[in-house]
Every structure is written in C-alpha cells, then in structure tokens.
Design a protein that fits this description.
Blueprint lengths: L11 E7 L7 H11 L4 E7 L5 H10 L4 E4 L13 E2 L1 H6 L4 E4 L4 E4 L1 H12 L8 E5 L3 H12 L4 E6 L2 H14 L5 E5 L11 E5 L17 H4 L2 E6 L8 H8 L3 E3 L2 H16 L5 H16 L2
Parallel strand pairs: 1-2, 1-3, 4-6, 7-8, 7-10, 8-9, 10-11, 11-12
Antiparallel strand pairs: 3-5, 5-6
Helix pairs in contact: 1-9, 1-10, 4-5, 4-9, 9-10
The structure holds NADP nicotinamide-adenine-dinucleotide phosphate.
NADP nicotinamide-adenine-dinucleotide phosphate (NAP) binds next to helix 5 and helix 9.
C-alpha cells in the first residue's frame, strides 16, 4: 500500500529489531497509523545479528530513535540493554516494545497488554475464570503470566513435552503464590473436569503453510470449550478454530493480538489514544493482507 507521508526534518524514526524481519506486518500497521493520524513518524524493519544487539540498541538511542519493537529471537536477550523495564514485562521476562527515555530505553510487553485488550474488545472475561492453554513455549508462558496477572482462577496448561508445562507451573505458581497452574500432557485432556472453558491455542501447530494441522484432533476435547482463541492469524481461520465452531463454541484468531500490541506501542511512543474507529479500520487492512496468503 502507498503512504502519503512526507519525510522532513521533523520526522521521527521507529523500527523493528529481529532476525528475520522480512515477513513482518508491523511497518504496514505503524505507517498506516502515522499517516491516518497525521503523526510525522516513519517505521522500518531492522535485521540485527545476535552479536550486534547491544550496539543496535545503543546506536538507536544515539540516533534519537523514538521507539522500537523487538521480535524473535531477541525478546528476552534485549533486557540487559534496557535502562528500565515495566513490571509486567519484567515478570514475563520478555519485552517487545522499547520506549525512548533520556537515559536509554524502557521495555514493555505489549504482546500481552495487546492480547488482553483484544480479548476485552471481544468481550472475553479473565477475572475469576478457569481456562485451558495449549502449549508451553514462549507465547504460552507469557499468556499464562498475563492471565494470572488478570486473576484467572485456574489454568490447565497442556503441552506435548509435559516437563516444559511443569517448569512454567513451578515458576509461575511461586511468583503468584497460589497453585493456579495445573500442568498436563496434551493426551490427558480427559482428566480436566467437564464444563466449558476459554481455550487459548499457543502452539505453532496449524501455522501457514501447515494449515490443515491441529494440535488436538479428538473432537471430544472441543466439547470443553465455550471460546477458542488461537494465537495464530495465518491462516485467518485455523483448523483449531473450525473444530471449536463445529463443537458449538465461538472462535477468534491472533490478529487482534497483533493489532493491539502495535496500537499499545504506538500509544506509548506518541502519548495518544487510538480510537475504536481507527483500530477497526487498521484491523480491516491487516485482515485483507492476511487473507492474501
Ligand atoms: P515456541 O516457543 O517455539 O513454542 C512452540 C509450542 O508449540 C510448544 O508448546 C511446542 O511443544 C508446540 N509444538 C511444536 N510442534 C509441535 C507438535 N508437532 N506437536 C505438539 N506440539 C508442538 O513458539 P512461541 O513463540 O511460543 O509461538 C507459538 C505460536 O504463537 C506461534 O504459532 C506464533 O505464530 C504465535 N504467536 C502469535 C502472536 C500474535 O501476535 N498473534 C505473537 C506471538 C506468537 P513442545 O514444548 O513439546 O515442543
């Protein structure tokens, strides 16, 4: 898409640090928001090598770069190079947004504030709920932390490698001082008490181009879901989401999370609030882009 923005002496730079970065939709979101709101920013991807991460952060500060996003594989590695860190990002142990301060950058985790905001927009409650999370990788660990932070009462954390679910349970149950996470193997879902849960799909199974795959095939599992939330957004409708709907549940993909992590970062950098109207308009752009795949 084309942008009407003009680069001049007052333009501020924002960017994304990662490796790889060529697949990212973040420039599209941020340049659209800047254009739409007449903010003189420009957003570009930066491919950074591991051994140059510290120099990249320090160099960005020296160049007066307003803000940065951080993606795979640097969300944790970047922490030692920050001047300050938001408490939730610190607890999660991962940062995806850097906000410039006088002395350096302050790190935030807008992946999780964004997911929370996307869920609120969709009317999904966390407070007091019992939920199921599939997966125990980086994304699922962050989601478990965020859900406990927003007071879910119990999490059944199911993973292929049960030791990884156990490790997250041990760590987070200690941090939150309650036995809220119950780690389990994916195969043991029939031990979960029969009622309806919010199920968050945090594994990489079903991601394009392996779009026909689904982390749990057995239709009985989907009887446990009133809502299914897949963190994957490509394809737009995952197999997991189809199975949730076939069992009578409501399903969402991860595009809202992607949108709101960007919106939260944009708001932090520019000290503004993005309206629902602009958020929805940006969502439609992203949706069209995602459906191209
Ligand atoms: P990760 O750390 O690599 O974790 C991968 C997870 O998938 C692990 O739980 C792993 O289980 C499981 N898995 C992989 N292959 C499997 C298989 N064949 N059978 C069963 N389980 C399998 O990845 P991540 O960073 O957590 O990301 C997970 C997903 O979240 C990705 O699809 C990513 O696209 C999505 N995500 C979306 C957003 C967004 O903005 N919407 C943001 C971040 C991530 P084991 O532990 O047993 O290997």
């Amino acid at each position: 898409m084309g942008y009407k923005m003009t680069v001049n002496g007052k333009t501020r730079l924002c960017g994304l640090i990662g490796n790889p970065v060529s697949h990212t939709m973040s420039p599209m979101i941020h340049n659209h928001l800047a254009d739409r709101l007449h903010i003189n920013n420009i957003y570009v991807p930066f491919h950074v090598e591991t051994e140059e991460l510290q120099q990249a952060i320090e160099g960005a500060h020296a160049l007066n770069v307003l803000g940065m996003n951080v993606t795979v594989p640097y969300k944790t590695d970047v922490i030692p190079f920050l001047d300050e860190i938001d408490p939730m990002a610190k607890g999660i142990g991962a940062v995806n947004t850097l906000v410039r301060t006088e002395q350096g950058y302050k790190g935030y985790n807008t992946d999780m504030t964004g997911l929370c905001r996307a869920m609120q927009t969709e009317g999904i409650r966390l407070d007091g709920e019992e939920i199921i999370i599939l997966g125990a990788g980086g994304a699922s660990r962050s989601v478990a932390y965020m859900c406990l932070y927003y007071k879910v009462s119990k999490i059944y954390l199911l993973n292929r490698t049960v030791e990884k679910a156990q490790k997250i349970a041990d760590e987070l149950n200690e941090v939150f001082e309650r036995d809220a996470i119950i780690p389990m193997s994916l195969m043991d879902f029939d031990r979960i008490p029969v009622k309806k849960y919010l199920v968050i799909q945090g594994t990489s199974i079903g991601l394009y181009p392996d779009s026909e795959a689904c982390v749990i095939e057995d239709p009985c599992f989907y009887q446990l879901a009133h809502t299914g939330y897949d963190l994957i957004y490509r394809p737009f409708q995952t197999r997991f989401m189809e199975k949730i709907e076939e069992a009578g549940g409501v399903s969402y993909n991860g595009l809202g999370m992607l949108l709101f992590q960007a919106i939260d970062a944009f708001e932090l950098w520019n000290h503004i609030e993005i309206s629902d109207e602009v958020a929805m308009e940006t969502y439609e752009l992203l949706k069209a882009e995602t459906k191209k795949a």
